[in-house]
Amino acid sequence: MNAWLAIVTKFNILNAIDILIVAFVLYRLLLLIRGTRAVQLLKGVIVILVATGISNVLHLTALNWLLNKIITIGLFAIPVVFQPELRRALEQIGRGGFFQFSFTSAGQQDIEFLIAEVVKATQVLARNKIGALMVVERGTGLTEYIETGTFIDGTVSTELLINTFIPNTPLHDGAVILRRNHVVAAGCFLPLTENRDLDKKLGTRHRAAIGVTEQSDAVAVVVSEETGHVSVAVDGTLSLNLSEPDLLELLRSLLLTKRTSALNFFARKAES
User: Nearest 5°: phi and psi at 24?
Assistant: First the structure.
């Protein structure tokens, strides 16, 4: 009783703030891993920890020794096996905080121009059932993917985008990466998503679009070669079969949202 009284007596406003911060950090971490393989990892870790505690209470020495060894090995294996998920989480934390600055008015005009050209090109490609994958860079740099393609650095235009994806031309395979109002590179290779719950009908372009948006905050626009349907991937989520007005509205909401010079380390992830 005296011990509890001493704890309550020493508890102050700083302790309450400390607890709230820790709780919020844990909450944000859970949001970051939601929808990834790390969720299954967390469930496995909880099961092992509970089993270790029970074996310790029941004095199951051999089982307790085995579980402790598994935990020790797991501490070294987790960063290796789940490197993509850890990278994605760290990038999302970085995107939410210290290094974001607002676009200038000129930058907004560049993005408006890019959106208009992408939408027009997408509709032409869709009508002719020409497959295409266009990735718009946002906060996270895409240099590692740009280096896998052919450097262009040309002002974006409907004609340039359409010609790039014409079948049997040198650059029609792979992705086009866009930055502000420029086509930076074409024929770029992107990481494929490892999500096994996706529709089996989705092809390589759609899986690449999801993959690059899982590992960055980029926005990917896909035109299906089979159906001519237009889709948009962002944050690892795919919006399928978009009409021209829907595509325009979605791209504007994703790319024209004003970014402030936030000091909020745990800013909420924007919902598409």
Answer: -70, -40
Handedness of CA 149, 221, 180, 157 (dihedral sign): positive
Report yes or no: 209 and 223 within 8 Å, Cβ to Cβ. no
- The predicted-structure confidence for 133-145, as pLDDT tens digits, reads as follows 999 998 778 888 9
DSSP string, 132-170: EEEEE--SS--HHHHTTSEEEEEE--HHHHHHHTSTTST
Q: From CA 147, how far away is CA 71, in angstroms rounded?
A: 40
CATH fold of 105-255? YojJ-like (1 (3.40.1700)
Rg from Cα positions in the chain: 24
pLDDT tens digits, one per residue of 245-255: 999 999 999 99
| Nearest-angstrom CA–CA distance, 114 and 105 | 14
CB 224 within 8 A of CB 205: yes
Give domain limits for the chain: 2-95, 105-255
What are φ and ψ of residue 48, in 5° steps? -65, -40
Distances (CA, A) of 24 to 33, 177, 183, 243: 15, 36, 40, 39
